[in-house]
Amino acid sequence: MKRGILLTAILSTVLVVNGQTSNELHEASSSQLIHKSQFNAIEAMRPDAAAQEANTASSSHSKYRSEVYDFVKVGNTYYDLQTNASIGNRAILHDDGTITVAWTYSSTSSTTWPDRGSAVNYYDGTSWGSAPTARTEDLRTGWPSIGMLPDGSIYTVAHDAADGGLKITRNSGKGSTDWTSQAGKVVTHPGGNLIWNRTANLGNKMFTLVNFSAQADDEDVDVDGILNPTLYAMSEDGGKTWSTPSLLPGYDSSRYIDGGGDTYAIDTRDSIVAIVIAGRYKDVTLFKSTDSGSTWTTSIIDSFAFPRFEFGRYLVQQADQVTSNDGSVDVLIDNNGTIHVAGGRVSYWDDDTTDDLARSGSFFGLYHWSENNPTWRVCGLPIDMDGQPATSGAAYDITAETTNSMGTDGNPANGLAYAARYGGTSISTHSSLSVDKDNNIFVTWDAPVEFTFNDYLANYRDVHISYSTDGGATWATTQNATQVRSQEAVFACLTKRTDDFVHFIFQMDEHPGTNLQNSGSGNLHPNVENSIMYAAIPVQDLMDSVLGQNTLNVQPVAKEAKVFVVSQNQPNPFSEATDVVIYLRAGSDLTCTVTDAMGKVVSVQNMGFKGAGNHKVTIDGQALTSGVYFYTLSTKDSEVTKKMQVLK
What we know:
The chain has six helices and 40 strands. By secondary structure, the protein is mainly β. It has two domains: 36-543, Methylamine Dehydrogenase, Chain H (7 Propeller); 563-646, Immunoglobulin-like (Sandwich), CATH 2.60.40.1930. The protein has a four-stranded mixed beta sheet, with no helix packed on it. The longest helix is centred in the first third of the chain and has 10 residues, at 49-58. It starts with 6 loop residues before the first strand and ends with a strand.
């Protein structure tokens, strides 16, 4: 099979306009082209890409690593499309260090996935619950958002794709596996099916964004001149009743011709609600409320060149490609109440309506904007495995199969034998943002990794991570957070708030792309079981660039096999056995030594070799009598000791 073409990294940043630049552009009729002189005038107003890239590198800790990381499996699913664009709110770090996560789940390989719904798992401080074997809802749903209400209950909000509307379920509190579905469905519309929610809450106030289904058998719905728009609704009673879904102020037909599934995000904090609505070839618009959703201010933070864009209406020469967000946005409110937005980029010219490779080929990086730094800048780049930085304009070696999509005939387009494209998203996509107690900002996303191929020459993706210690003004060099290489690691979701560890979940399987989007008539992507994995990475290791870049042809930097305990053993007290989740900086043999209160060694347990990353280890206490003990987890380079209690 032929090697896919090389894509040249020509990075460009996107103009922040607050609604101004579009006034300088004129709509082109179907017989007109945007001339070079006009395009150059537009581009001259954009921030300098080279300066942005230098800015990104200025705060780097560039150390190359060659490592494979291990993680804790928390669940599985045969339904492998977790989003069309943005990730949403699917992971919560609670104040006591426990964690709740959710994902779209199905236990069957049937391509109708009849048991599809929300799966939830809970981390009690040390160990995860058993992998869920059933959805939380009483009907088929998808795309969950999760949150916690003031009474301590956890909720899931997911959509009914068949008939539209949202289904809400609740349990009695963190860790409970007994779920009760609220009667009926909420946030419905007489004109069509509302699905793809993004939901968050402030106390009992809940806020949701939804979009009309754009499936082939659904009729378009016109709301005030926008087809299938994104709508907003609010509940003041914990989701029991909701306002009529409507357009947010400033989201109107003067700039938007239609909406888009999953191309929006929401975050809440104190009395602030932050909403971003985006989409390919659309503006990125920020809606901010500082009074818990009563009033809103609206700002266009990234203005697309052609309002109300539709293919064929504007013609742009290939040399004059126009940039846009790819819809995979996330939004975060930091500790100071400042809004942050991150997302991928795509490009457009007149003949690329079927050429997915061209549509994203020039924009590899992930981009960030904040209220304190209101200029879109590169916050992360895919890792150039052969040591030729993409920022210098060198080739970034990913294959055409990696960015190819299925044609209308159910086969890969463009004459290729495989397709691994994630919908309309870009090279770096599916962003997720988080903030720690020191107001450091973290972002994850997934991107292809050079020279890591499946049998059809599509590159595997890994989860990448970067951070900023100065509110987004500068960003550290990208590190590879998963380093799986022989499997696809995608759809990472960070907890919005974090502690001494960066916590996230992601999906992993052996085939690039998804079964839903990339299988085709040839079953190129079989419907296999996907693993949902959990990672906890020490913030200090990120700051010290311990993960590194896993690049080729570079001597690995030696590092100690330091062991971290993510949190206290659970259960504690215990009788027979207790579990501990640990993080290893590097692979090593692991030993657990148990001593009594007087310091006498009472047991030594060889736990075997553990790779770098996260592991759940079990301490055997069957031979111990009641009392206080200390357990020491040790590698060849490091050890950590914690106290535990045995109660027979």
